[in-house]
Amino acid sequence: MYVCVCNGVTERQIERAVQTGAARMRDLRLLLGVSAECGKCADCAQRCLRSALSGQEAGTATVDCMSNALQPSITMLTGETLEACAA
After folding, report:
1. Which CATH superfamily is domain 2-83 in?
2. Which of 83, 72, 4, 71 is nearest to 38 (CA)?
3. Which end of the chain is least crowded, N or C, by CB within 10 Å?
């Protein structure tokens, strides 16, 4: 699922960033560009970051940052649908 549409960042990329040491939003912004443009993804990115960090502590590798949130989608001009936290 796309978290940051401006920079094409997915929840899996956030998970991988956490696995390599990212622990704060600042880390995600520097590594991936999350919330560096419009900022609409900040809340979702924070949820994904927390989920990845708690999964890392629990020994699980799956990120589920959308379990209690709506999942709006964006239809691109190509007809491709992107799942996103913030449209």
Report:
1. BFD-like [2Fe-2S]-binding domain (1.10.10.1100)
2. 4
3. C
